Amino acid sequence: MMASDEHVLVMRDGAIATVVLNRPHKLNALTKTMWRDLGAAIDALSADDDVRCIILRGAGERAFSPGNDIGEFATERSNKAQATLYGHVMHATAAALANCRHPLVAQIHGLCVGGGLEIASLCDLRICGESSRFGAPVRNLGLVMAYPEMAPLVRLVGTAVALEILLEGRIFDAREAYDKRLVTRVVADAAVTAEARATAERIAEGAPLTARWHKRFARRLADPRPLTDAELDECFDCFDTEDFRTGYAAFLAKQKPKFVGR
Fold it and tell me: What is the pLDDT of residues 110-128, one digit of tens each?
């Protein structure tokens, strides 16, 4: 499937889906169509209750993605009007990633820069190899990272570090990315695929309703508005689920629970 002409691939293996940015000859550089297709793929998977975790990766092991394909700028982003339309597509996909109900794991090989870094920042966990490289050198193009693109980065690393990344425009290594909280885990290059898969399997073995609640709660806690009584009450809805009864009984019986998502 990696050799397909499609530039965004979706593969399923039980409860785990893998979405692949599939332009390896261009290091998985993103086109406007790819942004649109990625958003559609994530929206479709988010609506599927049988999915419990999504791995997002680039094809091959040279790059996650270096960001937008500069070669497309002449036809798609050569002026403000074009760039605005392009931005609407990008931001719709960013919203799809941000609002995805299922946990997202970024499997990062090699280069993860610009738009690639924006996509990875929208995932819940980011696992990279020791030789992975990161950055957002948009200043070299005279461009800004728009509010919807910058927001996930700022939430992840804070304002000061986000500004360091954008103002200096440096490309930096995996260890520095880990120190900046850009990535969750750094492993040997040869272990990235296996670690991402093992992570997805651990997530998929848990109660799916719980995973979705935790994602939503974590996002809500980033909002400074006070929690409502209804939101506080929702924290106890899990006690009326079949998954709670299954997990509780399995714990007492010293058995592995088999959750059904109800």
Answer: 999 999 999 999 999 999 9
